[in-house]
């Protein structure tokens, strides 16, 4: 179902008289303590109408507890919840009539059909016109199975029915706990479209997820929760728009840094052939970079202020390098996207970053320019290092703020496990990372191992956010 | 009324409602058939006085079987009411529907009220179904034994007697249902609520009774227990209503029956059970209004 159709089914733009952008949900110092365990610690959130707000964190981070407090299911130990500008007492139903919720683990009345379940909820909650039931069933793609008993529904179908229930009263605010859980890829796509359409209708959509990829694709704003504490919060495009950069793990990093500072840009215009040739000759790089055919090298006389080359000659330009610096045993090279920003997240003009650097470091999500730019720089740098017999055993895109924090959170969540690298790799695999844009490493597992080893240090940086 | 309609809709669609009703009617059929068989075939039955035998025959024929059916419902019906109420109130926790309703703005008081109303409706359903089933079974037995249904017995006073008995039986069922709704709310589980309430139903009366004979303190509290007072009211049904029970006690001069069926005794039983009912209802509201629903 397309967004236009969704908009038609959803009906008139809502907002219920409120201007778009009004605060729909606000939590102030929301805290919940279970015994000696602080599950949620002074969480401050603000969700506005017309936006999709992602609440991101690993399992056990406190997402559901926060949602339950917003929905009045559990009592906050401290802090308060405001819905549509008014303080919502924890067990008060008045304001929650404007909220549609999708709760995790909702199983419905198993002896009733999907339609009868909605009829029953409509009767219990009141003020639902009968035709609305068929509308929402159609909307979530359950119309054909509406008369089947819920007992026979799959998990994904139950989530769809839950979504239909959340929309039943056409609420101004939607609170959805892991809405994509159990959905097949087509269902996830439909859900994304639906969320966006709902936000366009002026509704506030607050959803939790442990999938960074989903949040990046759907949400305008995001908050990342770790052990009950919000680590980072802001617009997704802001959190993602760190300058594109790559990390190099190399033997003798001091020497490598010196060489890169000296040589980056010296051989402007020759990077393509050099890179292809040398990486092929050295036999130490992955094939990904060697396949990249560059039109120009990294330009400039220093590590800063390099110019793109090849934009006027019709050749594919190579991004200019902005800086080269050391971070521990790694070298970080920031570069610029050659004035070809692609469509950015949330409508912002700034370039955005693909989740795993697979496409769009500079060119926006899904834009191959970002991948080409990354490959060009990576290939060039690898060639420079190889020329000095320095083995770059890993070159990979540097994670943006959002990824950075999230991967750190994940890494910390798995630090007790023996093979913590597996967690990061699994996470990457779950997001469909079809290659990290030309990693010149011995493999993903090694990269994950390295990242997890430094996760604790990175976390400190994340908390400063 | 909206919530009551919702709960009645659920009751109608729940398989357990019909299964329980079927089992209850099966028990009634067994009881009536067994008594009819005994009256017709047992040598012992021939030895009893003609008047008593006539009463026994009447109790197995339509419409004379109705008071015994009501007595059965008041005595054993709570078992069925407990199971039904537990399913109605307790399963909502497991299915997540309770917290879903609350999260979407259904008031907690309204939710408890709907559960109690639903349980009350369930009791009415069991009572009506049980009565109807008992009547049908007795008609079949009457026909099977070649007797004629004594329709002349369907007098106004008899119907009033039946109405009284039905009211008492319903009250008893509602009392145990309210207890079950309360326990299901506290335990958040239909299975736990069923187990606890059935144990209370089976053990409370007999336990207090046996302890009362040994300990004076227990004997003092016995009149305030549920089982003791339910037995009092069941005796009223068996005696054929309040007025007939009172007449019977005067005529027979039996102290125990006097205690059970005298007007004051019956009123006392109603008061005690009414207080228990109020306690269960208030506890149900109090438990749910403070209950956190996020951790089911």
Account of the 3D structure:
The complex is a heterodimer of chains A (465) and B (296). By secondary structure, chain A is of the alpha/beta class. Chain A is built from 16 helices and 14 strands. Chain A has a 6-stranded mixed sheet with strand order 6-7-8-3-9-10, with helices on both faces. Chain A has a 4-stranded antiparallel sheet with strand order 2-1-4-5, covered by helices on one side. In chain A, strands 12-13-11-14 form a 4-stranded antiparallel sheet, with helices on one face. The longest helix of chain A has 20 residues, at 368-387. The two termini of chain A are 38 Å apart. The relative contact order of chain A is 0.11. Mean pLDDT of chain A is 71; it is low at 14-19, 266-314, 339-367 and 416-465. Chain B is globular. With 296 residues, chain B is mainly α. Chain B has one domain. Chain B contains 14 helices and no strands. The chains are: A alpha/beta (465), B mainly alpha (296). Chains A and B meet through helix 2, strand 6 and helix 3 of A and helix 1, helix 6 and helix 7 of B.
Main sheet specs of chain B: none
Percent of sequence in beta strands of chain B? under 5%
Distance between the termini of chain B: 29 Å
- What level of helicity do the residues of chain B show? over 70%
Oligomeric state of shown chains: heterodimer
Helix amount of chain A, in percent? Answer: 25-40%
User: Largest interface here, residues on each chain?
Assistant: A-B, 40 and 32 residues
What integer value in Å does the Rg of chain B equal?
Answer: 21 Å
Count structural domains of chain B.
1
Task: Enumerate how many helices of chain A there are, as a single number.
Answer: 16
Query: What profile does the largest beta sheet of chain A have?
Result: 6 strands, mixed
Radius of gyration over C-alpha positions of chain A, nearest whole angstrom: 25 Å
């Amino acid at each position: 179902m397309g967004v236009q159709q969704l908009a038609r089914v959803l009906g008139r733009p809502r907002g219920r008289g409120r201007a778009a952008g009004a605060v729909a949900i606000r939590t102030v110092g929301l805290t919940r303590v279970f015994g000696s365990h602080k599950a949620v610690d002074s969480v401050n959130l603000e969700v506005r109408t017309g936006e999709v707000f992602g609440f991101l964190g690993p399992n056990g981070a406190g997402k559901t507890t926060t949602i339950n407090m917003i929905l009045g299911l559990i009592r906050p130990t401290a802090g308060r919840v405001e819905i549509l500008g008014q303080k919502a007492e924890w067990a008060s139903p008045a304001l929650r009539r404007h909220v549609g919720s999708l709760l995790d683990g909702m199983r419905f009345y198993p002896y009733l059909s999907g339609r009868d379940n909605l009829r029953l909820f409509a009767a219990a909650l009141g003020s639902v016109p009968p035709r609305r039931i068929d509308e929402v069933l159609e909307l979530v793609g359950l119309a054909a199975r509406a008369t089947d008993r819920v007992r026979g529904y799959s998990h994904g179908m139950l989530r769809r029915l839950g979504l239909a229930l959340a929309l039943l009263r056409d609420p101004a605010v939607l609170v959805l706990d892991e809405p994509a859980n159990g959905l097949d890829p087509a269902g996830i796509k439909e859900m994304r479209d639906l969320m966006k359409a709902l936000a366009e209708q002026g509704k506030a959509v607050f959803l939790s997820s442990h999938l960074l990829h989903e949040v990046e694709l759907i949400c305008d704003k995001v908050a990342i929760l770790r052990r009950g504490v919000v680590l980072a919060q802001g617009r997704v495009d802001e959190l993602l728009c760190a300058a594109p950069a790559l990390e190099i793990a190399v033997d003798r990093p001091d020497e490598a840094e010196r060489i890169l500072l000296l040589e980056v840009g010296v051989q402007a215009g020759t990077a393509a052939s050099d890179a292809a040739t040398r990486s092929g000759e050295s036999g130490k790089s992955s094939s990904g970079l060697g396949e990249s055919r560059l039109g120009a090298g990294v330009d400039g006389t220093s590590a800063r202020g390099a110019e793109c080359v090849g934009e006027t000659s019709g050749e594919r330009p190579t991004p200019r390098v902005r800086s080269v610096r050391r971070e521990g045993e790694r070298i970080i090279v920031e570069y610029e996207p050659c004035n070809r920003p692609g469509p950015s997240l949330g409508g912002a003009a700034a370039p955005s970053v693909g989740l795993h650097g697979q496409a769009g470091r500079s060119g926006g999500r899904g834009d191959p320019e970002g991948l080409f730019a990354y490959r060009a720089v990576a290939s060039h740098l690898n060639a420079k290092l190889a020329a000095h017999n320095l083995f770059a055993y890993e070159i990979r895109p540097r994670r943006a703020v959002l990824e950075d924090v999230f991967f750190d959170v994940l890494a910390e969540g798995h630090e007790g496990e023996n093979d913590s690298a597996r967690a990061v790799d699994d996470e990457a695999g779950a997001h469909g990372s079809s290659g990290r844009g030309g990693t010149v490493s011995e493999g993903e597992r090694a990269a994950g191992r390295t990242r997890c080893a430094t996760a604790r240090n990175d976390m400190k940086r994340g908390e400063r956010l | 009324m909206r919530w009551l309609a919702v709960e009645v809709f659920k009751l109608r669609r729940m398989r357990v409602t019909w299964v329980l009703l079927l089992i209850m009617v099966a028990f009634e059929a067994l009881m009536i058939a067994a008594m009819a068989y005994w009256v017709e075939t047992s040598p012992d039955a021939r030895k009893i006085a003609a008047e008593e035998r006539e009463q026994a025959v009447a109790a197995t024929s339509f419409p004379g079987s109705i008071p015994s059916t009501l007595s059965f419902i008041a005595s054993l019906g709570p078992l069925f009411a407990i199971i039904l109420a537990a399913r109605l109130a307790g399963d909502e926790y497991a299915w997540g529907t309770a917290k879903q309703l609350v999260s979407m703005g259904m008031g907690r008081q309204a939710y408890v009220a709907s559960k109690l109303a639903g349980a009350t409706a369930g009791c009415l359903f069991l009572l009506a179904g049980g009565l109807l089933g008992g009547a049908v079974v007795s008609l079949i037995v009457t026909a099977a034994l070649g007797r004629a249904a004594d329709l002349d017995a369907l007098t106004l006073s008899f119907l009033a007697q039946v109405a009284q008995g039905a009211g008492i039986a319903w009250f008893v069922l509602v009392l145990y249902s309210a207890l079950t709704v309360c326990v299901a709310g506290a335990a958040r589980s239909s299975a736990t609520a069923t187990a606890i309430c059935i144990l209370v139903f089976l053990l409370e009366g007999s336990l207090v009774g046996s302890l009362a004979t040994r300990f004076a303190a227990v004997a003092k509290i016995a009149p305030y227990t549920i089982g003791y007072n339910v037995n009092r009211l069941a005796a009223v049904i068996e005696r054929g209503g309040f007025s007939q029970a009172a007449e019977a006690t005067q005529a027979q001069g039996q102290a125990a029956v006097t205690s059970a069926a005298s007007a004051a005794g019956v009123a006392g039983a109603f008061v005690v059970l009414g207080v228990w009912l109020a306690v269960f209802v208030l506890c149900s509201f109090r438990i749910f209004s403070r209950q956190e629903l996020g951790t089911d």
